[in-house]
Amino acid sequence: MDGETTTNRDISIKDRLCGRAIVLVGLMGAGKTTVGRRVATLLSLPFVDSDAEIETVSTMTVPELFETYGEPEFRALEARVIARLTQDGPQVIATGGGAYMHEATRDLLRKKAVTIWLNADLDTLMDRVSRRGDRPLLKAADPRQVMQELMDKRYPIYAEADLTVVSRPVKREIIAAELVEALDRYTCESPRS
Ligand SMILES: Nc1ncnc2c1ncn2[C@@H]1O[C@H](COP(=O)(O)OP(=O)(O)O)[C@@H](O)[C@H]1O
Ligand SMILES: O=C(O)C1=C[C@@H](OP(=O)(O)O)[C@@H](O)[C@H](O)C1
Ligand SMILES: [Mg+2]
């Protein structure tokens, strides 16, 4: 079977979501945007990326928002955008790496979503983020050190997500398939009516 076929199992997962969104959390470079889009295709669900949505509503890029208004304003906007997106029912939402650190966002997602942490090691993350320079937090003298500090601070919080999938240097289709399998198991074991 190819990686893009929607099966009866995938349709059942959608039913068992009972209106919840599938929300990907994790550090920059974990693959939330890339894998999230594939999972949405597999499950025939809409896909939205919170950074892209923020850029649409603000008509600014994420780096411009950080530069013009600072990180606290970006975080406030991010929390509002995610709160709105979770009203829209079953869909796959890729969040920006800092979104799940916001306590009110975590509380909301506990009720409205199945959350999945894409957990990657430092080498994998650095390899992936080094391809683009559009992450303001990494515009530092030692981006690897910044990433390590973010791992130390954020991984205990990401671990609160409903599910964890290990993101590693294998094809993105494999990670997407593992995520769907994890969702299948989880929605069977934790049904909601
Ligand atoms: N499984 C994978 N294998 C190889 N490259 C990947 C994989 N997942 C993501 N990438 C690449 O890594 C980079 C960061 O991925 P992205 O989805 O933007 O991460 P995030 O949204 O978590 O910051 C992108 O260039 C993407 O194409
Ligand atoms: O980790 C973070 O705080 C951030 C992650 C980015 O998104 P990705 O995780 O999709 O790279 C983006 O929201 C912003 O640069 C801040
Ligand atoms: Mg992303």
From TrEMBL:
Its biological purpose: Catalyzes the specific phosphorylation of the 3-hydroxyl group of shikimic acid using ATP as a cosubstrate.
Annotated protein name in UniProt: Shikimate kinase
GO MF term (any one): shikimate kinase activity
Binding site for Mg(2+): 33
Highest rank taxon of the organism: Bacteria
Primary location group: cytoplasm
Pathway annotation from the record: Metabolic intermediate biosynthesis; chorismate biosynthesis; chorismate from D-erythrose 4-phosphate and phosphoenolpyruvate: step 5/7
